[in-house]
## 1
Amino acid sequence: MLLALSVLIFILLRLTPGDPIDAYIDPNVAISQEEMAALRARLGLDQPLPVQYFAWLSQAVQGNLGYSIQRFDQTVAGLIAQRMGPTLLLMAAGLTIAIVVGITAGVVGAIRRNTLPDLALSVLALVGISSPAFLTALLGLYVFSVRLNWTPSGGMLTPAAPFSLLDLLHHLILPAIVLSVGYTSLIMRYTRASMLEVLNQDYVRTARAKGVKEFWVIVKHTLRNALLPVVTLIGSTIGLAVGGAIFIETVFNWPGMGLLLVDAVGSRDYPVIMGATLVIGAAVIVVNILTDLTYAVVDPRIKVA
Amino acid sequence: MSALTLSASGPLARSIVRFVDNRAALFGLAVLVPMLLAILTYPLWLPYKPNDIDLMAMNAGPSATHWFGTDGVGRDVFARTLEGGRISLLVAVSSVVLSTAIGFLVGAISAFGGRWADAIAMRSVDLAMTLPPIIFLLVLASIIGSGIWSTVVVIALLSWPVLSRMVRARLLELRERDFVMASRGMGAGMGHLLFRHGLPNSIDILVVYATLQVANAILLEAGLSFLGLGVPPPAASWGNMLNAARSTAVLEQFPWQWLFPGGALVVTVLAINFIGDGLRDAFDPRADL
């Protein structure tokens, strides 16, 4: 899958408008056809495409993704390495909030099904799924930063201030909550549906019949089994969170991969676009594999072959 | 509606009854239909055009003359929201038509076309589903360029894989049914199998997918335009109107310029999702059991 992804990205890279050689030539210097051909040969651009692909791949695997066209002297790998941390931090915070709130709300909805709290939660979840991340982000920014002035309006740290954890958290809290909104809704809906299904199982009735306390019926007998599909959901939709992170980083000026990618697309910086895409795509594939493995841990019926 | 009154009617009638019984779906219709009417007919009754400039009222707040206020160059936000709805829906519906056609064909061919066709089609589906949609969208948009029709193509190219998986699953099951075997035995060609047997038997999947995908496509279009890669100004779309809010002045001082298109976006998507969920439940033959 990773190889297929790399082929796809390489093809896309070559489909990008413009000759890659243009980036190497100073437009103010006259250059002859022979010199062009020599340069092409030196850069390997006269080779057939499959040869170019393997040359690119062997470099990419070693962490050499080329140089940024727009930010001179910056390697793509270096840029990505700088931006990876903030994005991981944002996503970890957002996912934690989403998992805690989503599962709690889902369990509450399932236990008190068809009551007022359940209906309210369901409607909220639908609104959460229907509102795009950038709109939630704008609204959050408007309410909490502009009107209430509780949180800073962007960035990750206060510029020119000494680093402090509190400052970081202060900048992190709003983007993380916004990122979690859509995910929370999704997790809540899944947890609720899956809880309802398990609550109807015979073994839950058996547990109740033998006098297990209701709290333990919910936590041990129902929740543990109901969480299986939720684990899959969290892993397999990680791409959604990545997508949301792109918009949120743009709105909050969060110095992560998403902002890097959007800036690169804006300035047509193709090596950076492709490098970032490759890294994000690879990360998503790895998370999906990890999800499958986690599944085997959570569900004793599944054995990893 | 009780099961007794249903038993005499046909499956389609039963589906309709189930849909009408669904309060959320009806609510969705009740919101969407007036909205569509307003969007389609606004040039007939609204005195402002989306690109008319009123220099006497720049950045004016909502008032009796300009219901949703005006933007930075004095264009009526209400007119632009309606025009934006037109463009957003145009992009969404065209991309859905395109992706439904691709999704059905790929799914059907991989179900009926033999092992190799299946393997190739399903691997390309896997590949297309690997990348997070927004990222793929960004990369494609950066290559194809911005504009209404390239936005349509980009969104369509991205959304067919899910559908083709569902169609394939349905048709694989169908392929083994007696009537399809009989028809193959009598020499029916691919076209006959696809459109006489495949299409009618997966129409429910297509309808539900298409409805929910319209909502999805509206969100994707808005996202792309928000990042400045979708529908380019001066044309209005909900996404590029929200793009204006990336400037701090607009975000802080003129909230009506982005709150109204944003609200229209969420309400429309919500309504379509309600209708789509209602359709899915209505088509599910197990619902009455």
## 2
Amino acid sequence: MIGLCLLLWILTPHFLTVANMLNVMEQTSINAIVAVGMTYVIITGGIDLSVGSLLALSGVVLASGLKAAWPAALAIAAALGVGAASGLVNGVVIAFGRLPPFIMTLGMMSVARGGALLFTDGRPISGFGAGFRAIATGRVLGIPAPILLTLAIYALAHLVLSRTRFGRYVYGIGGNEEATRLSGVDVRFHKTMVYVVSGVTSAIAAVLLTARLNTAQPIAGIMYELDAIAAVVIGGTSLSGGDGNLGGTLIGALTMGVLRNGLNLLGVSSFLQQLVIGVVIIVAVLVDLMVKERRT
Amino acid sequence: MKSGARIALVSFVSFVSFVSCNRSGSDAANKAPRIALVLKTLNSPFFNDMQRGAQTAATRLGIDLVVQAADREIDVERQMQIIENLIQTGVQAMALTPSGSREVVPAVVKANRANIPVVIVDTRLDKAAADEAGAKIVSFIGSDNYEGGRIAAKFIVDATKGKANVAVLEGIPGHETGDSRLRGFRDGIKETPAVRIVASQPANWERDQGFNVFQNMLQAHPEIDTLFACNDMMALGATEAIRAAGKAGSIRVVGFDAVDDARKAIKDGVMLASVAQFPDEMGRLAVENAVHAIRHEPIEADAKVRIELITKENVK
């Protein structure tokens, strides 16, 4: 990551400016926030494919609340509620109904997308007050608000994952679900909660995206699940569960953001950009695997 | 984790050395003014033509032209990121085809703040959103889509002798371009009550969705005898659905854009007509107006690019 930045600094004078650094972090924030919940889910050995659609659904709920002249706090709470409720449905069916996470969240991906389209009749909702938009456009001590929000979420989510009983159970479920259950942990409850976390972080990302674009689109967030999964795995979290951390995920998300930004600055063809990002994901995870194997 | 990033770096280095070889020529001639052209996407013939027109003009005028686009036409967030990134590179002017009429407004404001003149091409900014945010553009270049819709309507009224059951395939809801075409079309048939719209659904500009949506329409409304699609991609998808339903030749198809595939379909009699736009001309004007803006020369604030109905008689 640092090497990547050094390289871009050498190649283009526009890369290592304060303005551009803030720019990259701001652009990364949405993917980074979605990736928080995804990290929790993947550490338990699950997957959440519905995050992009949940983002769209909570976004349009938020937007219609704002349009109905609700106070911003209430509209945001409604959006988070929708995210949490959808996550709860995911979690309950996965943990209690024993449906594989891939199937359940694939279904939810379509359900939530359809819900968002139905809710808005396919049309974007736009034009909100400056107060609400300050979430994306505001600055505190010169630092864009989305960056501060992202850092705050990471700090909190990291504390929960590393310092609380819930966090330990998350690792336990991913490492050895049976052993965790036998040691008296309510595995099903904690598994459910992980998908709730993922729904909530998607909804937070929706708030940010809606404020940033001054619009909520029912077709927002398509393929965001893949960006989030990529950030998590580049960050060294294992898809087989039980291993990983949020610091890695943040670096993973930043790596993707820096790559996209750098390729834009260099004026690289859009087609080549896609190719490069794909190669980077594959190679990064491959090497991470090899290093881990050598260590054990 | 760190090693993952390290390898990311290695692959990036090899790639970048390749890129920088390609670029060394343009870097040597660093004096050339740099203009960015941000398209909705590059995987559409329409935008490829626009890019070609822009590139030709840039070469003629000695401009260093950077062309970038999101992977998917609907990805407004990504387009916004591209614009922000290009602002950082200090381009002197920017031409932009908005992926969303409202969504891209905050990015235009950012360009304004960086004193980069913005030329909007093809899709207008939403006026209310732009006014509210104080977004300023130096020029708009585009076809009169409303007029194009009317031309298609008039053609259908004439070709069907004023009696038709029409299906309409719309673009992505909320897009100014598609909405204007649709309005023009609706207004164009208003005077002829026997030309009825029996079904009207969005197929989001895409060929495969044009196929699926029109197939469903044919199921629900077997009486459909005429199709107006707000772009050729959806029209071409629909022609496949017509063929699959065994109705080839019995449904008139009129599209919009006159892309190469549509011209061929018109020649073969699979489509009846298409409203031609001239994206290469838009690209040329975009670069020319951006250059005017850099040199503080007067610019046409609203440049209309010609449109033309392509039928079997005049297809090339």
## 3
Amino acid sequence: MMLRFDFPKTFSDLLEEQSPLAYGFTRTHTPAMDVAENEHEFVAYVELPGVRKEDVKISFEKDVLTVEGVRKSFELPQEARVLLNEVSAQEFTRSIRIPAGIDAANISAELDNGILKIQLPKSQEARVRTIAIK
Amino acid sequence: MDTNNHGDLIRRPSSALAKRPEPLEPPMTPVADIYETADAFVIKLDMPGAEKESISVTIEPGMLAVKGKAESHKLINGQLVFSEIGRRIYERRFNLGEGVDGSKVEAQFENGVLGITIPKADILKAREINIK
């Protein structure tokens, strides 16, 4: 019996299942995020360089905060010749579960210097309270 | 206007502003786009969160260096419960070929993207020669 080794198929399987390329070059980008907490609120920071605020959508459903949108490419002058292209215009999405009660009606956000800052105030029930002893 | 035929005046023809290998972390190499127009080279670097005052663009013979820091958003009351961004130190250098005018470099920072415009020296500009 002759062993048959199907090169093209093997190669494509590798690409699809094992290669980091299969994950690293997906169309949807996952931006980096920080979350800070203090007694009044959570503050989430998301890296979104080159993104305009009208191209970002923020939602909060149950206890999951989701930031999604698209980075549009800048306008290249007509006669320009590209020498290096590491940045790509692409869609992005990021979600995170916030582990305490949030006053969803009062969530606010601002986009400054390529960092999206989202303030999520804690609900009254979720805040730490000091109980006086009678 | 076609400037491509002047490539041999640049030290490295197809990449006058090629990237250099960077030292190890902690500095982070910001990703960049570079394009060339008839009059200038333009570099755009992603530096989200960088404070404008912390950004420096330095021209040395044959080299352009960019540095910046992003740390102000850490100055909050409370503690980080989830961190991927951390404190960013951005650093990147580009080789500059001959034929650029280092005295007229301009930079602007918008939406976390640093744009640097490096005018070409006259020697690199395409010229039309009038026939007498």
